[in-house]
Design brief:
By secondary structure, the protein is α+β, with helices and mostly antiparallel strands. The strands form two sheets. It has a seven-stranded antiparallel β-sheet. The longest helix is centred in the C-terminal third of the chain and has 22 residues. The relative contact order is 0.24.
Length: 156
């Protein structure tokens, strides 16, 4: 029997693997996100996806668009819309650096990871990113294959 506050199990880690292949990350930020009750319950079950997700800045606020969070099974009429815009919680200094980076052509803001921290809050890691060219992608594939072959040699 446990007394007091129990530590939450934060095994939820949702990654955007495609973003690291398509973009070169310049700077990363960890931001909170405004969610409803059924959205947090779905994320705790691991029913979210960062595929085709991006961030925009509107009136000094950062919004994440196209973030998929599945409807909560027991949500009834209180359920949420799966792909609605959600507000990011960042301080002014971080927002200013994002705005100045996005003004330059070729830069964008993409979410890379979503996780639940020790306090039970959902956090989203976003990155200022620059798109990779085709030859950069081939180099990434080559490096990954080389690393894999070295690991196989070391295991033997």
């Amino acid at each position: 029997m446990a007394t007091g506050k129990q530590k939450l199990n934060n095994a939820v880690l949702i990654k955007n693997k495609r973003a690291s292949f398509d973009y070169e990350f310049i700077e990363t930020f960890t931001a909170g996100i405004v969610l409803t009750g059924t959205e947090i319950k779905s994320i705790r079950l691991g029913k979210a996806s960062l595929i085709d997700t991006y961030c925009i800045v509107v009136n000094g606020e950062v919004w994440v668009k196209n973030l998929y969070i599945a409807e909560y099974f027991y949500g009834t009429y209180n359920n949420h819309v799966e792909r609605r815009e959600r507000k990011m919680l960042l301080n002014r200094k971080e927002i200013r650096s994002i705005v100045s980076a996005v003004k330059n052509s070729g830069f964008t803001v993409v979410p890379t990871k979503m996780f639940i921290n020790d306090k039970g809050l959902v956090k989203l890691v976003i990155a200022i990113a620059k798109g990779k060219k085709e030859y950069d992608k081939r180099q990434t594939i080559k490096e990954r294959d080389d690393k894999r072959s070295i690991q196989n040699i070391l295991r033997k």
